[in-house]
Amino acid sequence: MKKHQKTNGNVGLAAHNRGYKNNYFKDLKKVKIDDEIIYKCDDFEKKYIINKIEIIENTDWSYLEKTDENKITLITCVENEPNYRRCVQAVEEIV
User: Fold this and answer.
1) Looking at the domain assignment, is residue 66 inside a domain?
2) pTM of the prediction?
3) CA separation for the pair 36, 93 (Å, rounded)
4) Measured between alpha carbons, how far is 29 from 8 in angstroms, rounded to an integer?
């Protein structure tokens, strides 16, 4: 079993949603509050529930700041709006 670095706090990921060979966030605009995000790496897995969907300015880095709460933040471009980004945040699902 591989050891993984602790993933507590805010995990931030950014990706393209169109125009490139790999558009990992092409469907990010379709998610809704209470949808589930599964974050996987090898044999590690965490589940999160979406609790915030925002359109933010491209200079706003506050959503990626360190937190005590376990969450994941996904950021991608807003189509035809170069000064804005789509930001989706989700909190860890406690089972």
Assistant:
1) yes
2) 0.88
3) 9
4) 26
* Domain housing 72: 10-92
Distances 44 to 4, 6, 49, 64, 93 between C-alpha atoms, Å: 7, 10, 17, 22, 15
CATH number at residue 45: 2.40.260.10
pLDDT digit string (tens) for the chain, length 95 residues? 445 455 689 999 999 999 999 999 999 999 999 999 999 988 889 999 999 999 999 999 999 999 999 999 999 999 999 999 999 999 999 87
- Residue 2 included in any domain: no
The neighbour count for residue 84, using CB atoms within 10 Å, is: 16
Query: Is 82 a domain residue?
Result: yes
In a domain, 65, yes or no: yes
Could you give the strand order of the β-sheet that contains 36-41, starting from the edge strand earlier in sequence? Answer: 10-14, 71-78, 81-92, 44-57, 36-41
